Amino acid sequence: MKRLQTIFLFFILSGCSQIELHNSEVYTIVEESSSYPGGLHAWYSYIKEEMNYPRQAIRMGIEGRVFVQFVVEKDGYLSNIHVVERIGAGCDEEAQRIVQNSGKWNPAKMGGQPVRHQLILPILFKLPD
After folding, report:
1. Domain ranges (residues) in the chain
2. What is the domain class of 25-125 according to CATH?
């Protein structure tokens, strides 16, 4: 009977660890946040280098922030990229393109393990003075 309980307990614990390993929960609050390789300075440099200010927005004098929401997956790749706050005139599509082309990020961590992490980041559109 003791051996049967031990085997049963082993299967229960094995099942729990499988659930933990396949956890697909998306976190918004984490112990260690996901980040662009090189940090914020590198992220802003990437945006500056990559941005093509839309001609329509220039003609219309459109400035502002486009907020893009996305998930940094456990492997660092991005998914579920979409604009949550728009300013129009082509800026929304450009902001989404910038995030989509940003490559692999450093994943967030909980308990030292990589987790899926949802972020919302602003992309600033400002015309030169």
Report:
1. 25-125
2. alpha beta
Partners of residue 32 on adjacent β-strands: 109
Spatial neighbors of 16 by CB under 8 A, at least 6 apart, are none
Contacts of 90 (CB under 8 A, 6+ apart): 54, 55, 56, 57
Q: Residue 21: which residues within 8 A CB-CB, separation 6 or more?
A: none
pLDDT confidence of 23, banded at 50, 70, 90? low
Using alpha carbons, list the distances in angstroms from residue 116 to 29, 41, 111: 10, 23, 13
C-alpha gyration radius of the chain: 21
| Residue 75 one-letter amino acid | D
Q: Is the pLDDT of residue 4 over 90?
A: no
What pLDDT digit, counting tens, does each position of 63-95 carry? 999 999 999 999 999 999 999 999 999 999 999
